[in-house]
Each structure stands twice: as structure tokens, then as C-alpha cells.
User: Fold these one by one.
Assistant:
Number 1:
Amino acid sequence: MRAAPSFAVLAAFMAGTTMAQAADLIFSPEPMQQSTGWIVTVKGNLRVGPSYPGSDDYSFIGYPSLSFRRAGTVERFSAPDDGLSFSFLEDSAVRVGVVGRFVGGRYYQDNRELFGLEKIDWAVEPGVFVEYWPLEFLRARAEIRRGFGGHEGFVADFGLDAVQRFGAFTVSVGPRLALGDSEFMQTYFGVTPVEAALNGQVTPYRPSGGVTSVGVTGAISYEWSPQWSTTAFVTYKRLVGDAADSPIVKQFGSENQFGAGLTVSYSFGYTP
């Protein structure tokens, strides 16, 4: 397992004032006792996952993040693999807004066998999301994003989470589906004739857009107090279709993509 000391500071986001009825039913405990101002939540995140899409080597990444919500409201459920989001429409069980993700790059030092393959820089993926609670314990979420930097393609993620609270514990689990267009697929899974000639271990390959992976995410959170909470999670993705058939995956990587992480959160009141 490789350890890469990568750090990313994520932008803060603000939750809306109207909470979904479904989320209210799930998160019944009283919020922090403050009637005015904001509740600020500071998070320290530590994650381990594939060094690049399709890799069988793993890297660590640690980063802080912030979130805000109005005082007197409870915190919405958020899966650990959600993108950083800001909602501009919250109506009953529906939530719509903007979202963003950070995607690490692929570099020669990640795997010496990648010699001859083009370096891929890190990328940011801004986009939009839609979230819907059809039942009080079931959340559906879709994100559509466009890459800038390392890749210039469009990607989409779909997820379904069953969420249940047991005292101070909150447990969630659900399936995942990821898609990418041909630009995204060519960046991470394609091989040009020049790259194939320089590397010598792979053949030219031009993938098409479509489903890139299917998987599942599970998480468990514990609320130590109204201020402190801890979340641990695991993820599994299985590369499928043209992504799984890539010679980069078959020769140097794996179709099975595992991940895990831990988040420690501290909340406090703030009145401007």
C-alpha cells in the first residue's frame, strides 16, 4: 500500500433553512441549543483508495472541510461519497443544488509500469445534484459533473441509501452506479498508439462512453455529543464495460476498487 501525503482544502457550503420531512423523521434528536446564528461543523477527513482509477495500488489522502447550517435545525444526512454540495432548492423531500468533486491525477511515480503513458493531472468536477427521499428511511441522489484540468469529460453518479438511526448510531448502506462519456474514458482508460509503443506492455485501446462501475457504500456514524461525531465508511466499486476491458486495468491494475475512510466532526455555534 502506498501513502501519498496529498491534502486538499474543500470550499465551505451552506445548508438551506427548510429541512426535508423525511430527514426530520430520521434525525429526531434536538439540535444544538442555539436559536440564532449558525452552526459550524469542522471536519477532519482521512481516506484510502486506489491511487488512480483502475489502480491496484492505494494512497492516503487527508483534508479538512467545513459546513454551515442555520441554528435550530438538524444536520441533513450526507453519504461519505457525496460530492461537496450547496442546495438552492429544498422543498419537502426534494433537494436540488450545485456540487463539486476533486479527482486525483495519475503519475509515473504511482506505478513504474506506467512508463510511456501520458501523465494525468488532478481535476475538479463542478456540476449539479438532485436528491429525493421517497420514504422516510430511503434517499436517492444523482450528480452530473463536468471535469476541468486532468480530464474534460462529463461524468454522472447515482446512489440509493437506506438510512436508519439506532440511538447515537446512524447506519447507511446502498448501491452505486457511475457513468462517464468518451472523453473521460479515453483519459483514464484509453491507450494511444504512441503510448503503446513507448510502454511495450499494452496495446492501443479507445474506449467508448457508458457505465464505468457499479458498487456499494456503507457507513456508520456515532454521535458522542451534540458537538462531536465520528463516521467510518467502506466503499467497493467494480469496473465494468470498456473501463474493465482497458489494458491499463488488465495489465497494471484491478477491476476491484476498494476504499475506506474516517471523519471526525466538531460543531459549534456562531452568531455574526
Note: The chain is about 10% helix and 50% strand.
Number 2:
Amino acid sequence: MLLGAIAATVAVILTFASATSDPPKKIVSLNLCTDQLLLSLADPDQIAGLSPYARDPTLSWAAAEAVRFPVMSGGAEDAMMLKPDLVVAGRFERRATRELLARRGLRVADFDVVRSIDEAKRQIARMGAIVGHPERAEARIAAIDAAVARLRAVATRKGRRVLAVSRRGWIPGADSLTSSLLAAAGLVNAASEMGIATGGFATLEQIVAAKPDLVLVASALTMAEDQGQAFLLHPALQRLYPPEKRIVIPEMLTVCGGPMLAEGLDRLADVLARRPDEVTRVAP
């Protein structure tokens, strides 16, 4: 099965490589996830501009690298002023902006929201081919495959139910990248029992009623910096889910499907390897 997945990924790389014989020289990104794919796979002189969130260290795994490049507002005007020969964006955001750019004759490559490890590898392959560096994509994919193997080697057999809870009660659903990561670790996303498909907000009462064995959070903070974080520090959640019942993996490792997944998978493997019978947190 692993060989088949690798062969399929290589086929995708070759398909895009053959379709993009002349890589773009000036690329603009409108999306946090395409920012990070570009920063990992493109030459620096190919990157003309990045999204407003590119330098946010809480969301962008490549925030340190992003400081070298212009950050735009995310609107069509900024992109048009830079006169790129390619714009990369997320398919489900700023539709009017993407359509306007296309009407003005700019080439736009849309990238879907990643909902599995395999989808993440396909997107890496696609971007690597687009920018003219499929060999870099192959290396990134190989790193993810190696991290998946390390995680599966220590995966739990107990099928513990985990609920990932983000700011203000946002829950990644059953059809999400988070579910794919948990499944590789032998864990189950409890969001499926709550009827949450791709993602949605849940109340404190709904989370408590779901009774997950563990919660997955992005931070080990004990003091809230704003109302969004305060939700995670509610006394009810603190009592039911103390540190030993929380898996802590920074959001920048799970919000996008890209090279950062290798580190996210290794964080989860580290959790299981340290306490195979009692999943606990790993410090960010």
C-alpha cells in the first residue's frame, strides 16, 4: 500500500511537471497555506508577495522565512500591482478576488483545503511541479512518509477518543486533516459523534457532553490572552481535562497541509512514545 501511494504521488509530480515546462518567475500567494508551500518549494526570487498571515508565528510554520518577502493585504489590487505571472490561492476564500484577477488575464492556481495526509502530499507535489522543483517536493513528501512510519510504530491500540478544540470552541470535524493525523496514531476524532463533518463551533456544554478521553489543543497556556483562549481555560474543561489529558500540538503544524506535517506527526509520535498507556501533552 505504501509503495502504491508513493507511485501515485510520483505520477502526480510528473503530470504537473510536464504541464509546466516553463516555471513562473514571479508568484504571488493570497493564502496562508500556499504561502508555506511556496516558501518551502520555490526559489526566493520567484516569490513576489505573500498573504497577510504569512508572518504570523502562531499560524505559519514558515513565519521566519516570510519576513524576507513583501506581505500584501490579500486584495486583488495588491496582486495586480506586482504584475505576477502566477497567483496561488485557496479555492474557498476571496472568490471575487480570484475571479477579478482571472478576468484581468492573470493566471490563478487554486488549492483546496487539505483534509488528509495523502491530500497534503498531492498538494506538495503539485506546487513543486508548478514552481519547477519537483525534486524538492519529493524530499518533503518522503519526510512526511517517514514521520507517518515513525508514528505508526508507536500508535496506540486502545482507540482513545480525542476531541480537538481550538479558540472559541472551534472543532475540526470528522472529514479533516486533524482526523487523518489522529487516525495514523490509532486515535479517533470524537467530532464524528457530534455530527461535525468538516468543522464547526461547539458550545462548552456540547464538548463536556461528548466526554472525549482526551482533548487536543494548540497551546499549554495557563493564562488567557483574549476571549478566544479563555474558552479553553474554562474551569469545567480545566477540571475534566488537566494537563495529563491534553495533547498539545501548535496550530501552525496542523492548520495547513504541507511540509510542516512531518513535524506535527513527530510531535504526536513523541506523545505516544513517552506515555504509551496514558497519552499526555508534549510541550510546544
Note: The radius of gyration is 20 Å.
Number 3:
Amino acid sequence: MLPTAHYTAFIKRRAAELGFMYCGISKAGFLEEEAPRLENWLNRNMHGQMAYMANHFDKRLDPRLLVDGAKSVISLLLNYYPPEEQQQPEDTLKVSKYAYGRDYHFVIKDKLKTLLHDMQQEIGEVGGRCFVDSAPVMDKAWAQKSGLGWMGKNTNLIRPGTGSFFFIAELIVDVELDYDGPIKDYCGTCTKCVDACPTQAITEPYVVDGSRCISYFTIELKDQIPREVDGKFGNWVFGCDICQDVCPWNRFSKPHQEPQFTAHPALKDLTRGDWREITHELFSELFRQSAVKRTGYAGLQRNIRFVLGEEAPTGPVLPSSNEPRM
């Protein structure tokens, strides 16, 4: 077996042993097709207050500017779809499924570091970096190029027979490997995600105005939520799963097997009244290591008041978010 084939087989086998659903590999290079799309998206100010999206434009499109001598982008998927008994009832306030358990940044980064270490043990000297939303990497574009799925009309990566409830991460390394190719788009004529979005954030198939997404309003926005979207959030107080919940492909979603993603047992039992009266102590207990900590106690209170139709103080309520670490 040629070294590249052997190394590639080892990486994919080890990734599976670490709990990743799928692993695909692409040749590192400039993302020619994504460049004009990203530029147009930024020019239309669809990133809103997410100023970091406009930074490092060149690095965002070329991983060789992030990792010296980069030759391969290893894309990995990790399932986070919760078991039915952990999911929140429809009539209570809700957080996005990805935030039920421990913050995925920590969970996945540990797995990536292990995989990179094991590659170095097996292959020899390997230079590379691990990425989990921590630098300007277009993770969905690389996952698509490596055949892990196609970009759906809601701009989430969708994998046939699996759906879209998974995290995407990358290892960018300076080793030549065998490369996978993209698969076709299976969205067809379906527009369920476009039709279901209550804030019309999916302005057209395959284009999402990030500044109109419920996830943006409840996580990224640092000011008060504008009244023009009053009554459109349903019960979502952190993130939103609507465009994924209605996607026909997600009927294939299966519960994850990652203990660290297990929800706090009290989360699904909170009533609307419990949410309204949530204390800082309970917030810290429920979301001790959760991604919900990103919006903070004050931010979550703002979101709860908005969803419940209560007036809130004016002015900024959240600290400015830091640019993702390089």
C-alpha cells in the first residue's frame, strides 16, 4: 500500500475510534468558488455585528495562509443530535440542541489534538493545526469539497442518510493524502427550510442573511433585539433549530453517543415560569460548561424577556464578542 493510502486509511480509522461520524479529506488550496460569494455576502452586510467575519478575508479562503506548508484539509463530523428523552418540550422555552451539553469547542478540540498526536506517532513529523470555530476557516465549504455532504438551502451541510445535526471541525496538515470528491446536491425542489424561517433569514435558497437569523439575535447581537422581529422567535431563547427540524433529511438523525453532550437533567423540566425566574446560580448550574455561556446570564435574561413579550431596558446588554482566536 502506498504511504498516502496507508496514512489516509489510518486517519479515517482513528477518527472513527475517537467518535467522529465521518472523515473526508481535501487538497489544501484557494477556494475559488467561495471567494465571490463571501465578498458579496459581506458587501450586503449580512454578517451584521459579527465584524470578525470581515477580518482575514484571504486566510478565510486559503488554508495555506493559516498553516505553513499546508497540503491537506481533514474535515470531520461529530453528531450532537440528542436522545428523545433529553429534548425539550415544544411548550417551554428552548435552547438549540447543539448547546445541551458541554461546549463543543472543548470536546472536539481534545479529540483533534489526540488525532494529530496519533498521526505524528504513525506518520512521523506532521505539522498542522486544529480548528473548531477558532479561526477563519470555511468549515462547511471544506466539508463539502471532501464529500461529507452538500450545502443545503439553509446553508447547513447536509449528509444523505444522516441529516445535519453535527459539528464540523478540521485538521489542516502539511502531509499529502488521498483526497475525496464532492457529492451532488439532494435538496431538489424542497423549500421547507426557506418557508419555515420566521424571520425570513433565508432570503433565497442557499443564501442566509445572518443578521436576520434567530441565532444571531439571541447570541451575537449585543444590543436590544429590534421590535420588528417581535413575536417571531417562537420559544427560542438561545439559537434556533427550525430550519433543521423541518428538513426531511433530519428524519434520519440518530442520537449521539458522546457522554459530554448529555443535557443537564433539569433542563427539559423547566417551565416558562422557571425560565422567567431563572437565577444566576441556576444559570451557572445548568450551563456550567455549555455554549450558552457565550451569551451570558444578562444576555439570556434579555432573550427570555423578549420571547415572553416583556419590556426590557434599553442599551447594550452583552459585552462585545471577541474575534475568534487565531
Note: The CA atoms of residues 79 and 166 lie 4 Å apart.
Number 4:
Amino acid sequence: MSPRVPAELLGGHLRTLREAAGTGRLPGRDELDAYRAGGRRAAELGVPLRHLVDAALAAAEGLAAPSVLPALRKAVAALMEGYEKAQLAALREAERERRAFVDDLLHGRAERLAERAEHFGLRLAESYVVTVARGLAGTGADGIERDLTERFGSHNILVAVRDGLLVCVVPATLPAAVGEFTHHVRSRFPAGWRVGVGRPQRGPGGIVASYREAAGALDLADRLGLKHDVVKAADLLVFPVLLRDRSAMEDLVTSVLSPLLHARGGHEPLLETLEAIFAAHGNQTAAARRLGVSARAVTYRLQRINRLTGFSPDDPTQRFTLETAVLGARLLDWPWEQPGGE
């Protein structure tokens, strides 16, 4: 027996081979089960499969009878079957533990979190950034995790799927990993994907906060109709502030924009014109290009808005009020009731 393989893993193996050499008898069901159990135990002990197989083959040296080979083949096949099943079970258990850890981490459940985090290479006292991607495509998530860990190391990257989002947790000291994650999402996901990036946060609670910011950035981008593929929570900080007093925001939207509901042609073209003007920093020609209309049409719409609401984007104070009202309308899915138009 090889000194690298515990003797009990191949107990009875030499006797089985000698019987095969003498009588031609192949291993029976009980013997094959014992081989499978030996293979499972070898996997659990961390014995390399090649060492186990080598030890099984070495035991046949000196037994020259042709009938030994069929018995040896069955024995080795049973050993390998047990070994592979144990490895598969271990992988499934590791994945279950990983999913449970990610779920606890992103929910902020603190039971043995720091201890478990070390197992996955995370040092929770550090600052981390959470990035999420929407628009999963088949098995692309597995390839992204493999590519990221190959470049940055498995101790620096945690990738998992949660609530339909691909979640990537990286140290704040590795900003390049966020860009690499986005690159792989762009190359693997179908059209319609979007990435949200949370702010760097420290500790287990920080990871939860960064995850919620990243997912919230995706939601805000949808509600605001943003065209960007990558949205950063740091760029959208004003919107949670605006929504903090919902009743005040609803009152502002209603007071400022309600007159647009009675405009001929509907309110939507006028809202889109205001959004284009704000995005173009007041440049009517640039706004017209964004909208695909003439500059004259933009001027005419702005005059209608001023006439209906009493507010003009040319006045700094009124511009701020209008822009805030338009943002609130998009965030709150205004109008809430659609009156009959004139």
C-alpha cells in the first residue's frame, strides 16, 4: 500500500484481486460498495484521486493472471465513482453555504458573519463596494465570477445571484474590479442590461447599505427614464432626499405641473421638453436635437409651459422649482389621475 494512502481505504482490495487471480471471480455488490465507500472517504480526507488509483493498481503488481484485470477495472471504477460523488456532494454543500452566507450578508444577519466571511476571503472590517447587474443571460454569471477571480483573486471577489440580480462585492481599494465587472456584463448580457454601483461602505452593515444603494440606483434610473447603462448611487443622492417627504413632493408636483394636464396634445411632450432643456443646461438648440424637433418647436413649447404654469426655466429660481417638480413627477409616476383634456 502506498504510504500516501491510508490502508483502510483499500481494505480487502488485495484479497479481492487474489481471488480473481485464482478463480476469475469478479467483485460482488458488497465489495463494490466497499470500494465506493473507500473512494468517498478518500475524497473527504483530501487524498488525491491519482494517489488512490495508483495504490489500487500497485496492489495488482505480481498478480499476472489475466483474470485480475477485469476485477481491477471494476474496483478502480467503483473507487472513482465514490470519490466523484463525494466531490459533487462537497461542491453542492459549499454552494449551499455560499448562498446562505450571501443571503445573510446582504440581509445584515450577523450570526457568525465575520467568521464565515473569512472563509470566503472577505475581511469585514474593510470598506467594500457592491455592484449589481440586471439582465442575467444564461450561465454568463459563472464565467464572470471565474474571470474576475482569475484576475483579482478569490479572496477579493464575491459574486452571487440574488433576487434576479448578479451581485459583485469587491474591496473599495480595488476600483478596477468594478470596471472589469461592468465590462464582462456588457460582453455577456443581452441588450437591456444595466449596472448599479453602490458607494464604498465599511463593515457588514456597510455591505448591506452599498447593496441597497446599488439596487436602488437601478430602480431610480428606471423611474427617471435615464438612458445610462451604468448608474452610480453617488450621482443620485439628491433623489432619496427629494422622496423623504413624499407628501411635500406630491404637493409640489400637483401645484406646479397640474396645468399641463389640460394642454392640447397632452402633458408628456411638455415634460419631455423640460427634461431635455435641463439636460442641455438651457441650450434650446441642443434640447431640440435631443427631442428630434426644431428649435422653434422647443421655443413654442417653453412658451406654453410658462403660460400654463407661470414658471419659466429661464429664471434661476423658477428653473429649480420646475426641475424639482419634473423629477418628482417621474419618481412618483405622475399623473396619478388622468383628467379629460380640453
Note: The chain is about 60% helix and 10% strand.
